[in-house]
Amino acid sequence: MKVLNLIIKQKYFDAILAGRKVQEFREVRPTTIKKLLQLDEEGFEIEDEDGNAQPIKYDAIQFYVGYNKDRDSALVEVLGSHCEIFVDENDEPITYEHGRDKDGNPLVWVAEQVVFDLGKVLSHNIREKSKKV
């Protein structure tokens, strides 16, 4: 099973467990592209026939609440995923520069996100809440 590990806030975690949050959105950034999108051997996005980037196919997402050692977690099925490109008021893709190529030219990135369609909760670990004395 191919699993993506993600950190989320408690309110979103609770909504997933309750079935109110059925999609998870992750912006594709230079720091996250390798775990979100399929890349070719040169590190470029693999695109479909319409030019849309292809997300990595995950079977499930392991959600963790925050960064503490003792934290809530849940393994949630992924039903599907797709990429969405952010566009401006003229319906043009939003781009930004980050980094440089081997010749020193700026690298232009398209602002986009991966949308994961969530299925059932496969397992969860809810920590015992601290009781006030």
Account of the protein in words:
By secondary structure, this protein is mainly beta. The chain has a domain at 3-82 and 113-125: Archaeosine Trna-guanine Transglycosylase, Chain: A, domain 4 (Roll), CATH 2.30.130. The protein is 10% helix and 42% strand. The chain is built from 2 helices and 7 strands; from the N terminus they run E-H-E-H-E-E-E-E-E. The chain has helices at 10-18, 33-36; strands at residues 3-8, 23-28, 60-65, 73-85, 95-100, 106-110, 112-125. The protein has a 5-stranded mixed beta sheet. It has a two-stranded antiparallel sheet with strand order 5-6. The chain is elongated. The protein starts with a strand and ends in an 8-residue tail after the last strand.
CATH architectural arrangement of the domain at 3-82 and 113-125: Roll
Strand content bin: 35-45%
Q: List the strand order in the largest sheet.
A: 1-3-4-7-2
- Element order: H for helix, E for strand: EHEHEEEEE
Protein name: ASCH domain-containing protein
Structure summary:
With 133 residues, the chain is mainly β. 10% of the residues lie in helices and 42% in strands.
Which secondary structure elements does this structure contain, and how are they paired or packed?
Elements (H helix, E strand, L loop, with lengths): L2 E6 L1 H9 L4 E6 L4 H4 L23 E6 L7 E13 L9 E6 L5 E5 L1 E14 L8
Parallel strand pairs: 1-3
Antiparallel strand pairs: 2-7, 3-4, 4-7, 5-6
Overview features:
mainly beta, 2 helices, two-stranded antiparallel sheet, 133 residues, Archaeosine Trna-guanine Transglycosylase, Chain: A, domain 4, ASCH domain-containing protein
